[in-house]
Amino acid sequence: MANELKYQSGFGNQFETEVYEGTLPKGKNSPQKVAFGLFAEQLSGSAFTADRYNNLRSWLYRIRPSVLHGEFKPMSNGLLRSKPFTEEPASPNQLRWDPFPIPNEPTDFIAGLMTIAGNGGYSGNRGSAVHIYTANKAMDDRFFYNSDGDFLIVPEKGAIKLRTEFGIIDVAPGEIAVVPRGVKYQADPIEDVARGYICENFGLPFKLPALGPIGANGLANPRDFLYPVAAFEERTGTFTLINKFQGMLYEASLNHSPLDVVAWHGNYAPYKYDLKLFNVINTVSFDHPDPSIFTVLTSPSEIEGTANVDFVIFPPRWMVAKDTFRPPYYHRNCMSEYMGLLFGVYDAKEEGFVPGGGSLHNQMSAHGPDTNTYTKAVNADLQPVYLQDTLAFMFESSLVYAPTSFAMQAPQRQKSYQDCWKDLPINFKAPVGAKL
């Protein structure tokens, strides 16, 4: 593959890119004969009849069409789970996990997938799943695509290289990448090991949230999303193509690399985003705004204003509100929240919630700052302060997350998580002379 680390910018743009000048047909998508003897193939991420604004598709001009593979046969899912999420009942209890270790044995991105929780499913265009990935080796001659949903990949330890049909994307901690359903790729550690989080989105594709009263500027800027330029490899040999289909993994033989796209154009492709470029919106007076102001991407649901799943971050930012409890407030929510930490300390949980770990608070499960954070916040001399060296995130869904048996039985689950609130002081004193 050539042309590494070159990108095109702009969220959802109509891109066109070619390795060799003259590859892309002019004025046609599928001419009778494609330049250089290539095959034309369309990859559709939406129904053909979707309106023009929401119609997602790209034309790929490749050395071999995707139909050239052996019969798909079932393979082991390992710790990867999908709908129906019925191994364990969804829990109203607050749940939290320590980081999962990197395996000692050679493990690639697919073998290292572990499902923590999920909701909805692949068959109804609704829901999402939370996975952890760990890897200490490249995928080598294995390739993967997902028929069930998109993968939003959030690295926490070590950068990974995504070698895709559309080109190459490097994504490091502090960045994210989205690989849409149907796209073939490899995900390899750039360093010795890699670990991170994945939100598998079964619903409508991610889009930028509406800005409303914020106006034209703020949150994630469309021009900061980066898409790969065309790159290809012409490699023959013995390869394996892995497909996640209806929650199960299947494998088929290949005698060539499927990353053989010489040119492409369209608006359906993998992309990356640097979270440092997020323009934080916050209060400059009093009170703590709702965390929706930190939404990077959203997958809409059939209920207007209610997301199938949101991707939300809590990045470095100024805190200036006066006469305000500045950490995240005590809260019960009609949404379900899985949180992870990429680096630093989360301002609502100064202990116990560490990089690589995670927490799950389902619909209407109460949560908020631990005792030490509460005590510190109510006694603080409120001056402007810059929260730095911190980056937490949240997958927030309108559906309840059911945990997997693996997640509930894992030694990394903190069974005493609720103890972080048990010493909260009761400070109530009735007014002198008050009568009930």
Give a structural overview:
The chain has helices spanning 371-378, 405-409; strands at residues 7-9, 15-18, 39-44, 57-62, 73-74, 95-97, 113-121, 126-135, 142-146, 150-157, 160-164, 167-171, 175-179, 185-189, 194-201, 226-228, 236-245, 248-256, 261-266, 271-274, 295-300, 307-314, 317-319, 336-343, 358-361, 385-387, 391-397, 402-403. With 436 residues, the protein is an all-beta fold. It is globular and about 90 Å long.
Features:
3% helix, 6-stranded antiparallel β-sheet, mainly beta, 2 domains, Jelly Rolls, 436 residues
List the helices and strands and how they pair.
Blueprint (H helix, E strand, L loop, with lengths): L6 E3 L5 E4 L20 E6 L12 E6 L10 E2 L20 E3 L15 E9 L4 E10 L6 E5 L3 E8 L2 E5 L2 E5 L3 E5 L5 E5 L4 E8 L24 E3 L7 E10 L2 E9 L4 E6 L4 E4 L20 E6 L6 E8 L2 E3 L16 E8 L14 E4 L9 H8 L6 E3 L3 E7 L4 E2 L1 H5 L27
Parallel strand pairs: 9-17
Antiparallel strand pairs: 1-16, 2-19, 3-4, 4-19, 5-18, 6-25, 7-8, 7-28, 8-15, 10-13, 10-15, 11-12, 11-14, 13-20, 17-18, 21-22, 22-27, 23-26, 24-25, 24-27
Instruction: Specify the number of helices.
Output: 2
Helix and strand element order: EEEEEEEEEEEEEEEEEEEEEEEEEHEEEH
User: Under CATH, the topology of the largest domain is which?
Assistant: Jelly Rolls
Number of domains: 2
Rg from C-alpha positions? 23 Å
Strand order of the largest sheet: 20-13-10-15-8-7-28
What share of the residues lie within helices?
Answer: under 10%
> Poorly predicted ranges (pLDDT <50, ≥5 residues)?
none
Mean pLDDT: 95
Which architecture name of the largest domain does CATH use? Answer: Sandwich
Class by SSE composition: mainly beta
